[in-house]
Amino acid sequence: MSHGPHFILVRMRHAFLVFGGIAALTMAYAAAPTGSDARARELIETLHLKVLPGESGYLGLIGDSAQKVQIDGRMLKVQSQVYYMLTRDKPINYLHWLASDDTHILIEGGPVDYFIFHPDGHAEKVVLGREVTAGERPVVAVPGGCWKALRLHDGARYALMANALSPEFTPDRVKIGAGEEWVRRYAGAAPWATQENLRGLIGPNWRP
């Protein structure tokens, strides 16, 4: 059975519309390339991340533990978990102190420098990243009672992390920013711990 030219043109047009629609849907739902600014925006939107006041960066809640433990006379959940993200527009997690243990797990992107300031006065820098043979680590565990700040590496577009805090985060068990006394205490504690660098990690939360 044969068809005329008009029928063939109609079928071809229909086929082009179908394939064109499939291609458009594929492009619309395809993930943005890993490591791109578009991917960073996609993660922020998909995971419902919001700008974190004070510390900067982007934060999204994951959940918390059903179990509780007694700490300093009060009952706290054993753990809480959040997403945390640094981007090129917000590349620094400014200096802060947490009473809880804080474990950071790299999900995507990076690397990130971790500046950790211990209660005994010593300081260390750990790189959160995937190049383990170069000394980077995919997990960084920061003990409770430490000050810390994070800085996204130059050239990195973003870093998405999962943070587990034990026991749970509560607003009264965090301090953000420091002043001159803190700078004097940790200046010279490591080769990178110059007064200028330390003040840069404090950022807008600097208190003379």
Please describe what this structure looks like.
This protein has helices at residues 5-29, 37-46, 180-186, 195-202, and strands at residues 50-51, 58-64, 68-71, 74-77, 80-87, 92-98, 101-109, 112-117, 123-128, 139-142, 147-152, 158-166, 174-176. The termini are far apart. The model is unreliable at 5-29 (pLDDT under 50). The strands form three sheets. The chain has a six-stranded antiparallel sheet with strand order 1-2-5-12-7-10, covered by helices on one side. A five-stranded antiparallel sheet has the order 9-8-11-6-13, with no helix packed on it. A two-stranded antiparallel sheet has the order 3-4. It is α+β, with helices and mostly antiparallel strands and 208 residues long.
Topology:
Elements: H1 5-29, H2 37-46, E1 50-51, E2 58-64, E3 68-71, E4 74-77, E5 80-87, E6 92-98, E7 101-109, E8 112-117, E9 123-128, E10 139-142, E11 147-152, E12 158-166, E13 174-176, H3 180-186, H4 195-202
Antiparallel strand pairs: 1-2, 2-5, 3-4, 5-12, 6-11, 6-13, 7-10, 7-12, 8-9, 8-11
